[in-house]
Write a structure and sequence with these properties.
The complex is a heterodimer of chains A (about 220) and B (about 260). Chain A is an all-alpha fold and about 220 residues long. Chain A is about 85% helix and about 0% strand. Chain A is flat, with a radius of gyration of 21 Å. The termini of chain A are far apart. Chain B has helices at about 50-55, 85-95, 110-120, 130-140, 155-170, 185-200, 215-220, 240-245, 250-255; strands spanning about 10-20, 25-35, 40, 65-70, 70-75, 95-100, 175-180, 205-210, 225-230, 230-235. In chain B, α3 (about 110-120) crosses α4. Chain B has 9 helices and 10 strands. In chain B, a hairpin with a 2-residue loop joins β1 (about 10-20) and β2 (about 25-35). Chain B has about 260 residues and is α/β, with parallel strands linked by helices. The chains are: A mainly alpha (about 220), B alpha/beta (about 260). The interface of A and B includes residues 119, 133, 218, 219 and 220 of A.
Chain lengths: ~220, ~260
């Protein structure tokens, strides 16, 4: 019976698949965290930075946003190694995804900061808050709320973009699936399974994001 | 009653000049206020009233002249080495005045109580219990004690403005600045805000108000200042300014103003 063989193949592949899922989750998660931190820096530079700083960050941003993630990943792996920076596939992939994430978060957060009414800053200044305090207690909490839906979107995009890391040899879910298929030639079933797993990860991110959004929404 | 001649004025504006790029909006404004003074500034749009107020709160830079609060030169070091003070210094000086805005500008992500305590906690660095006690006392005073845990989005315009007044005055400023605080309100909500301001005036709070409410200016002020084209054109007791205007421009303005 073919079903029995299918399940036995799946059973044999279970740890490999789990490891692949684990790698996808880990590299995506770390890239989202680092990318968000870098993205906050990008947004701050664009909104409050000096002319030169704004220009540099703008160039970085336009370059990253105008480049396919695929090219970015290859660049991090091959170009950096040409430049003498030897990175493992994992490190290069992490750098590429972090940079990709930071460009999205940065642009998005910049928009959210600029969209805040000027009166908010003025009211904060008027009670004597310093610039730093104004940002931390008044502007950031509002801008982050604004930016959250797009941020969740970025997180899901990042998980999907992580499949491209398979080309530089990061053994995440996509590469694992291809390796399994090489041994157990069932492309339809295993790609379907991988698709379902990616869907579940992204779907969970969206649901979780919605919940957070609801929790922090302001009463009116 | 305090005598303005014998004590240092709370607020002293001398020869204030302010330009927006090429347009001169303040062309030498002088104004002195003693403790407990209530001064209303009237005048048509573009006369520089709001800009003057914003200079006192250092929300605008100014190119010439000086502003002193309680004898302290604010925003800039004294001439001839006039130079803008450090940001931290300016932040401290800003807390010497309390500003209430036309658009309330409450922080939407904080409750009424949170709005009032923020400055007490972060600027005055009071312990939480003390900050809350002060905030509650002022929220009570403006009639918002019951809604202390409401968010701005859950409050009417008048209620938001009353919280904004509590937020400013809780910092114990030397001068309260009111910038057309009822202009954005529905007509039926104007009175609740004016009543609060009147009661604060009766308590002896030093207040500088920019307003379009002539009747209110007449009732609440000790002095009314009429600004025209970046200068103070006329000032005096409300009865004199409103009943017996000296300048032609003021007479014209009053004819068109609503009482």
């Amino acid at each position: 019976m073919d079903f029995i063989r299918l399940f036995s193949d799946l059973y044999i592949a279970r740890w490999a698949i789990l490891e692949g899922v684990g790698m996808t989750l880990i590299i995506s998660f770390v890239a989202i965290i680092l990318g968000t931190m870098l993205g906050i820096g990008v947004a701050l530079s664009l909104v409050y930075g000096g002319k030169f700083q704004r220009f540099l960050v703008r160039v970085f941003l336009e370059y990253v946003r105008g480049t396919p993630v695929f090219v970015l990943i290859l660049a991090c792996y091959y170009v950096l190694s040409q430049a003498g920076i030897q990175l493992t596939p994992f490190q290069a992939g992490l750098v590429a995804l972090t940079v990709f994430c930071s460009s999205h978060v940065g642009e998005n957060l910049r928009g959210a900061l600029l969209a805040l009414p000027k009166g908010q800053t003025e009211a904060a200044k008027a009670i004597g808050l310093t610039f730093r305090q104004t940002f931390v207690y008044v502007l950031a909490p509002q801008a982050l709320r604004q930016a959250l839906p797009a941020w969740i979107n970025t997180a899901a995009e990042l998980v999907k973009a992580s499949t491209l890391l398979s080309v530089i040899g990061v053994v995440e879910l996509m590469l694992t699936t291809r390796q399994i298929i090489a041994l157990k030639p069932r492309p339809l079933e295993f790609y379907l399974l991988a698709g379902i797993i990616y869907f579940l990860i992204c779907f969970s991110i969206e649901r979780l994001g919605r919940r957070v959004e609801r929790r922090i929404s302001l009463p009116s | 009653m305090s005598n303005p001649v014998l004590e240092i004025p709370v607020l002293e504006i001398l020869g204030l000049h302010k330009k927006f790029t090429d347009i001169e909006v303040l062309k030498g404004v002088d104004l002195t206020m003693a403790t407990g003074d209530v001064v209303s500034v009237i005048g048509s749009s573009g006369s520089g009233k709001t800009t003057m107020l914003r200079c006192v709160n250092l929300l605008e830079d100014f190119e010439q002249g000086s502003i002193r609060i309680d004898g302290e030169e604010i925003g800039y070091t004294a001439a001839p080495q006039r130079r803008r003070r450090k940001e931290s210094e300016i932040a401290r000086q800003r807390s010497m005045t309390g500003m209430v805005f036309q658009q309330f500008n409450l922080f939407p992500h904080m409750s009424a109580l949170g709005n009032v305590t923020l400055g007490l906690l972060k600027v005055k660095k009071l312990p939480k219990a003390e900050a809350t006690a002060i905030a509650d006392q002022w929220l009570e005073r403006v009639g918002m004690a019951e809604r202390r845990n409401h968010y701005p989005g859950q409050l009417s315009g008048g209620q938001q403005q009353r919280v904004a007044i509590a937020r400013a005055i809780a910092m114990n400023p030397k001068v309260m600045l009111f910038d057309e605080v009822t202009s954005a309100l529905d007509p039926e909500l104007v009175n609740e805000v004016l009543t609060v301001i009147k009661s604060l005036a009766a308590d002896g709070m030093t207040m500088l108000l920019v307003t379009h409410e002539m009747k209110f200016a007449y009732e609440v002020s000790r002095r009314v200042v009429f600004m025209n084209q970046g200068k103070i054109e006329e000032q005096g007791a409300p009865e004199d300014v409103f009943r017996n205007p000296q300048s032609k421009r003021l007479a014209e303005f009053l004819k068109n103003a609503k009482f």
